[in-house]
Amino acid sequence: MTSDDLGYADYQPLPADLPFLLLPDLADRRLGAGVPAAGDEFFAERENLLRPERPVFRPHTFGPKGQLMDGWETRRRRGSTAHPHPAAEEHDWALIRLGLPGTVHGLVVDTAHFRGNHPQLVSVEAAALPGTPSPAELLDPATEWHELLAPAPVRGHAANAFPVADPRRWTHLRLRQYPDGGIARLRVHGEPRPDPAWLAALGSFDLAALEHGGRVEDASDRFFSPPVNLILPGRSRVMGEGWETRRRRDGGHDWVRLRLAGRGTVRAVEIDTANYLGNAAGWAALHAFDAAAPGAGDPADPAAPGWSELLPRTELRPDTLHRFVLPTCHPATHARLDVFPDGGIARLRLHGSLA
């Protein structure tokens, strides 16, 4: 056990059954998210809030301002000589630019390693603005902010989860902590909603890509890494950035079902096994489903009439980008990738255009 593992011995993790945790993190830096401004970051920088890896703590690592913390930490607020404590409404804030605009279903405010220096309360507001607004524009009194999370208590050294029920599309968040303190990470789980005008201008694009509105609906296995990695931007750099299943011993096979960005026609497919050497999937097959077709049935049923074969079972090579031009093209709303018998796939690209 490493010293970092020991640091998590008394950590309070998330409940395993929260539905929104299966949705992608719209504030993932790998998707282009950022923290353009914060009111204070005296002890630890605001950018740490969106780092994808779990927070680490190395005791007795001091800089000129104190213990180095892997998170966002502000200085201690003070009142006056007569009233030394800050007023109840005083707070620190950070602006979050979502990597993918979308609907927020749940928030995770992680205070890992912040024990006596975590905030008492947190709140989150959301805004929807076009383009790339500056911090000054976001902070302009004319900007409309809508409350997603009213001030709520948080525990120290814990993952604090908050479901959100709001169907609107957002581009930016404002995180507030009362009155001050440290937050290690912020996760914003939801459904991407890209700009339709942008997709129309592209014409042909990856219909499965998370950034274009694609989504993983379900998968047979999530043991080593989540299937959403299949549709992240860019190529995977290491094995852990793809989707890898456990070793099967039952004679079956693994699969992942995707909902495409919209009803579209897939013309070309990329299946990338980058960084999977002795554990790449041996074969893959691809099927498409058109929910708009009469009598299509339920896409969750692999035997439903709406499923048709796009790519027959095809042998894969380890650590290789495979490209296939499809001989026939049919409209589809969903896709299912079957891998035989198990193993890892780094990326899946389904190139085409909206119907």
Automatic annotation (TrEMBL):
Top-tier EC class: hydrolase
Pathway the protein acts in: Nitrogen metabolism; (S)-allantoin degradation; (S)-ureidoglycolate from allantoate (aminidohydrolase route): step 1/1
Domain (Allantoicase) ranges: 32-192, 213-353
One record GO biological process: allantoin catabolic process
Transmembrane segments: none
KW Hydrolase (keyword) present: yes
Catalyzed reactions: allantoate + H2O = (S)-ureidoglycolate + urea
EC id: 3.5.3.4
The UniProt record lists the keyword Hydrolase: yes
One Gene Ontology term of the molecular function aspect: allantoicase activity
One of the Pfam families matching this protein, by short name: Allantoicase
PANTHER family with a match to the protein in the record: ALLANTOICASE, INACTIVE ALLANTOICASE-RELATED
Protein family membership: Belongs to the allantoicase family.
Name assigned to this protein: Probable allantoicase
Naturally occurring in which organism (per UniProt): Kitasatospora viridis
Biological classification of the source: Bacteria, Bacillati, Actinomycetota, Actinomycetes, Kitasatosporales
Gene name as annotated: alc
